[in-house]
Each structure stands twice: as structure tokens, then as C-alpha cells.
Input
Amino acid sequence: MERIVILTGAGVSAESGLGTFRDKDGLWTRYDLSEVATPEGYARNPRLVLDFYNARRANALEASPNAAHAALARLQAGFPGEVLLVTQNIDNLHERGGSGAVVHMHGEITRALCAACGHRWDAPRVMDPADTCPACGTPATRPDIVWFGEMPYHMERILPALGAADLFVAIGTSGEVYPAAGFVEIAQEAGAETLEINLDPAPAPGRFDRMIAGKATEAVPAWVAEVLGA
Output
């Protein structure tokens, strides 16, 4: 085995205190995401959107990496082949947990994007609708987040990696939202083994060759130890 592609979702950060969208008290039950997580919502009320993400940014910056983040960093450092870490999470807990190269397919809460010219920069802790883009001067700054209806980032890197992987691992993700929901099929068609690590199996059982059930902070370190032989 030379190439591993790992996809992580909200379940990896949940034990750091960052709630998932799908739990009973998750963001989908407390907010109308059409108002705070779409380009149309931003156009209607940028202050509401920025306030929503200001709160999420504060939560993410106050959270600490957990044992799952640390274990994946150990895997990247200790595995003799390639480990591509792709995350659906917008926090930076993987990086703060020691991982080097992390592909953020849904963007990063710590980055800002100009809706007018496309320039990107490090976001301030609190963003305001009056903030201007440092490149073009337009007051059209938004979080550098992939919203509903937008194309995920870095697909030109992710898809070829899936096609060349020997092992694809999905950790803490529901596997219900495309294109990420189709990653397991792409990897399998290319001949890769597939593994799911989650609290509960994905809604469509049998999609993965193997399933490890358990908390990310317990299951991920155990699996990494198995892979590294330590």
C-alpha cells in the first residue's frame, strides 16, 4: 500500500466541541441555512451571514485539536507512502493538530474572499459588511467558504488522487452530500480498498469494504496504530 486518501467530516471535530450539521441540536435545526449559507442569502443580508460566520470562527479558534486530529498527523508523518488528507471541515484543527498538507474542499473559516474580484486573504477574527477587499477596494468581503450551490474546491486534485489510491478512508462524514458522497465509488472503481470510520454506519450500508464504529478520538488512533504497526 503506497497511497492513502482520507476524507474527514464534522464527526472528527465534534469531540473538540464543534457541533455537526446533522445532530439533533445541529446547525440545520437552529438556522435557516438558505439565509446564512448561500450566495443568495449573502446578497440579501450580508450582516446576518457575516455574524453567523463570525460566531463559527470564534468557536473554531477557541476549540482544541483532539486525539483524532493528532493521530492523522502521526499517520502523515509516519506512513512511508503518500497520505492525502481531504476535509469537509472549515476549521483549522487538522493543521493545529500537526497535519501539514490539508485539502479544504469546503473552504476555510480563517480565510476571506472578495465576492467582486475573487481575491483571498487571511480573515480578521470579526468580519463586517463595510470591510473592503485589500485588492480591489470593494466592500464585498465574505468568508472563503463553499456555500450550498457552489462547487467544492480542489476537485482537480482530489479526483485524480482517488483514482490512484490504494486505500480510501472516510472518517466522521455522513456521506450523503455530493460530490463527496461519490468518492467511495470512484476509489472502488479504481481498485482501492475502502474503509469507513464513524459513530454509526453510513445510511447505505455495504458501500465500504470495512467499517469501524466508534468515537473518532478512540477509533482513529487505534486504526492509525494498526497502519503504522505501532
The beta strands are 3-8, 82-87, 102-104, 107-114, 120-122, 141-145, 167-171, 193-198, 210-213. The mean pLDDT is 91. The radius of gyration is 18 Å. The longest helix spans residues 46-62.
